[in-house]
Specification:
single chain, alpha/beta, 8 strands, about 10% strand
C-alpha cells in the first residue's frame, strides 16, 4: 500500500508567523512622511495590510485623505522597501509557541511553507534574519506569481513549489485573504486571532481557530485532513 504524501502546513507571514506590526508601522510612516501626512497607528494597521506594500501605501494615503498620483507610487514603494529591508529584523519576532510548533511538525516529517502577499524578497530576507528560513520548503510572495491571495493559484502554486499534495495541505492565517484562499483551493484552514484582521476571525468561518501555537499539533492537522477528505468524498 502506497503511503500517504507528507502533510504540508502553509503559513501566512505577517500577523500569523511573525509579529511584524511595529516595523510595518515604522516603515509606512517613514514612507508617507515624504508626503507630509500624519502617521498611522497600530489600530489603523488592520485596515491597511494584506495586499503588500503598494496597496498598504495606497490605503494609508486614502486614510489620510491624500489623493495619490499613480506615477508617484513607485517611488513611495521604493522608499518603503528600502527602509523596511534596511532595518530588518527590527522589532519583529515569532509569535509565542511558533518555533516549538514547527519543530513538532518537522519531527513528524511534515513539510512547511509560507504563502504571503508580502514581496518575496522581503519575506525571504526577514525569515533569514530571524534564522527561520530553514524550516520552509518554499517561501512564496505576493510578487512570485502573477496572482496572489485570495486567488487559489497562489496557494496551489505554493503547494507545488513545496513538493506537497493539495489533499494533504492545511493553510494557517490571520485574515480574510488567508481563509478565502484556503476555501478557494478546497484546503482546510486554521485561523489565529492575534494577527491583523479587521474583523473577528470567527466571522471568516475557518475550519478551526487556535489562540496559541501550543494548539497546533500533529493530531489537529491530521483531523482536519481527514475531515476534509471525508467532505470531498461525499
Amino acid at each position: 500500500m502506497t503511503p500517504a504524501p507528507a502533510p504540508l502546513v502553509v503559513f501566512d507571514l505577517d500577523g500569523t508567523l511573525l509579529d511584524t506590526h511595529a516595523d510595518l508601522v515604522e516603515s509606512l510612516n517613514h514612507t508617507i512622511a515624504a508626503l507630509g501626512l500624519e502617521p498611522v497607528s497600530y489600530d489603523d494597521l488592520t485596515h491597511l495590510v494584506g495586499q503588500g506594500a503598494r496597496v498598504m501605501i495606497e490605503r494609508a494615503c486614502r486614510l489620510r485623505g491624500h489623493s495619490l498620483a499613480e506615477d508617484g507610487l513607485p517611488l513611495l514603494v521604493e522608499r518603503f522597501v528600502a527602509h523596511y529591508a534596511g532595518n530588518m529584523p527590527g522589532h519583529t519576532e515569532p509569535y509565542p509557541g511558533l518555533v516549538a510548533a514547527m519543530n513538532r511538525l518537522k519531527s513528524a516529517d511534515y513539510r512547511l511553507a509560507v504563502c504571503t502577499n508580502k514581496m518575496e524578497s522581503l519575506a525571504l530576507g526577514l525569515l533569514g534574519k530571524l534564522n527561520l528560513a530553514h524550516y520552509f520548503k518554499a517561501v512564496i510572495g505576493g510578487d512570485t506569481f502573477q496572482y496572489r491571495k485570495p486567488d487559489a493559484r497562489h496557494l496551489t502554486g505554493t503547494i507545488e513549489r513545496a513538493g506537497g499534495n493539495i489533499s494533504r495541505t492545511v493553510m494557517i492565517g490571520d485574515s480574510i485573504n488567508d481563509i478565502a484562499v484556503a476555501k478557494n483551493a478546497a484546503v482546510p484552514s486554521i485561523a489565529v486571532p492575534f494577527g491583523y484582521s479587521d474583523v473577528p476571525v470567527s466571522t471568516l468561518n475557518p475550519d478551526v481557530i487556535i489562540t496559541h501555537y501550543d494548539e497546533l499539533t500533529v493530531e489537529l492537522v491530521e483531523r482536519l485532513l481527514r475531515e476534509n477528505a471525508e467532505k470531498a468524498a461525499v
